[in-house]
Design a protein that fits this description.
The protein is mainly α. Helix content is about 75%, strand content about 0%. The chain has two helices and no strands. It comes from Tychonema bourrellyi FEM_GT703.
Amino acid sequence: MDMPISLSVEQQFKLQVLREQVKTLSQNEAQEYLLEVMRQNMVKENLLKFWMKKG
């Protein structure tokens, strides 16, 4: 199975928008944002593992 290793054009656009938005964050806001992104990624990983076990 081929694994996608690049971003779609839509994902690249969203990343650029996010890049501009985070420029205005304070250090504390950036740290909180990073922690929330990591938490959401961990939830996503757990859901994928759960679905793979069920499948």
